[in-house]
Design brief:
4-stranded mixed sheet; elongated
């Protein structure tokens, strides 16, 4: 009976999380791409930019949260990342590869340094 109690106790403490071997995976949805958008000269955050990623026909506009744009949740792929903001030249980075991890995608973090026009 003791052998059964430990696994049940572990499952009960993890809620909806899944257990794979020694790894406990959370039930959260992690972004494939996170972009910090800043002014290239001042390093000030720009949070009113439009940020989107594209992988073939898939397109996702990223949501800003705490100054970071994040999206394409739990979706591996090869993305072209685009950023536009009023008063700045457009910024992009091609072929950003996001791979599957053990539990979630391996999030790619980028910094888009926008140049004022």
């Amino acid at each position: 009976m003791k052998k059964l109690l430990l696994p049940l106790a572990l499952v009960a403490t993890t809620g909806c999380d899944e257990i794979f071997g020694d790894t406990v995976c959370t039930a959260s949805a992690e972004p494939a791409v996170v972009v910090e958008v800043v002014d290239a000269d001042t390093d000030d955050a720009i949070t009113d930019a439009i940020v989107w990623v594209q992988d073939g026909e898939f397109v996702d506009t990223l949501d800003f949260n705490e100054g970071l744009a994040a999206g394409a949740h739990e979706r591996p792929g090869t993305y072209d990342v685009h950023v536009e903001a009023e008063g700045y030249a457009p910024w992009s980075q091609e072929d950003v590869v996001v791979r599957d991890g053990e539990c979630h995608v391996r999030t790619r973090e980028l910094t888009a340094e926008l140049v004022a026009e």
